[in-house]
């Protein structure tokens, strides 16, 4: 069975470099890493496909991002999963996480949405929360800044210096989930 890797985020250049779009940054990295070409799909998503690994252990991978807003991503992602016949246990959602320090990653299977509207939408569309997540830490805002405003801001100057390595690490965690499984990925990447 193929794997569907979903980078959660919002569409358009105004949101592209924001903390909320870190999931889309990771799928862009994966597509570039494997020279996969993005194309528009009838499910209101953009998708790119490639093989990961070699020989009989090679996995078919579809990376995707919704062309709609984060809180409406479930329907398009579910439609894409149906199109490629991918069950939720072969879906990996990559998303920003306020409760993890900046540049840390955590992988898990299932769980709550912790107020994340993209995860709420996916869980509602799939009818289950039992899909994998790669949680990309963005930290909490300092002072009294509203978290909803914080996630829609670009990374700070200091964060931008670490951003490329952070995105690469997220991509590595996704590939580890597919090739090595959850336990080994957690051992190697949950720092």
Write up this protein.
- By secondary structure, this protein is α/β, with parallel strands linked by helices.
- It has one domain: Rossmann fold.
- The chain has 6 helices and 7 strands, in the order E-H-E-E-E-H-E-E-H-E-H-H-H.
- The protein has helices spanning 22-33, 74-84, 117-126, 147-151, 157-180, 182-189; strands at 3-7, 39-41, 45-52, 59-66, 91-97, 105-109, 132-137.
- It has a 7-stranded mixed β-sheet, sandwiched between helices.
- The longest helix has 24 residues, at 157-180.
- It is globular, with a radius of gyration of 15 Å.
Notable characteristics:
single chain; 191 residues; alpha/beta; Rossmann fold; 7 strands; 22% strand
Q: How much strand content do the residues show?
A: 15-25%
- H/I helix tally: 6
Report the count of strand segments. Answer: 7
Q: Order of strands across the biggest sheet? A: 2-3-4-1-5-7-6
CATH superfamily: Peptidyl-tRNA hydrolase
* Helicity range: 25-40%
CATH topology: Rossmann fold
Biggest sheet, open or closed, and with what strands and sense? Answer: 7 strands, mixed
Structural class: alpha/beta
Shape type: globular
CATH architecture: 3-Layer(aba) Sandwich
Mean pLDDT: 95
| Number of individual domains | 1
The gyration radius over C-alpha positions equals 15 Å
**Helix/strand order:** EHEEEHEEHEHHH
User: Uncertain regions: pLDDT < 50 for 5+ in a row?
Assistant: none
Which CATH class applies here? Alpha Beta
Distance between the termini: 29 Å
């Amino acid at each position: 069975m193929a794997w569907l890797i979903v980078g959660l985020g919002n569409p358009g250049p105004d949101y592209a470099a924001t903390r909320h779009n870190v999931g889309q940054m990771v799928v862009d990295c994966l597509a570039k890493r494997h020279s996969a070409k993005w194309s528009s799909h009838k499910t209101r998503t953009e998708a790119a496909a490639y093989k990961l690994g070699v020989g009989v252990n090679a996995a078919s991978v579809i990376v995707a991002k919704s062309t709609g807003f984060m809180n409406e991503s479930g329907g398009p992602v579910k439609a894409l999963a149906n199109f490629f016949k991918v069950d939720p246990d072969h879906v990996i959602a990559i998303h920003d996480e306020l409760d993890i320090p900046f540049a840390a990653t955590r992988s898990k299977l299932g769980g709550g949405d912790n107020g994340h509207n993209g995860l709420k939408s996916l869980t509602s569309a799939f009818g289950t929360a039992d899909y994998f997540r790669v949680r990309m830490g963005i930290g909490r805002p300092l002072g009294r800044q509203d978290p909803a405003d914080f996630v829609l801001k670009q990374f700070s100057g200091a964060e931008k210096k670490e951003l490329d390595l952070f995105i690469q690490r997220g991509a590595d965690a996704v590939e580890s989930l597919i090739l090595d499984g959850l336990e080994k990925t957690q051992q190697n990447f949950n720092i």
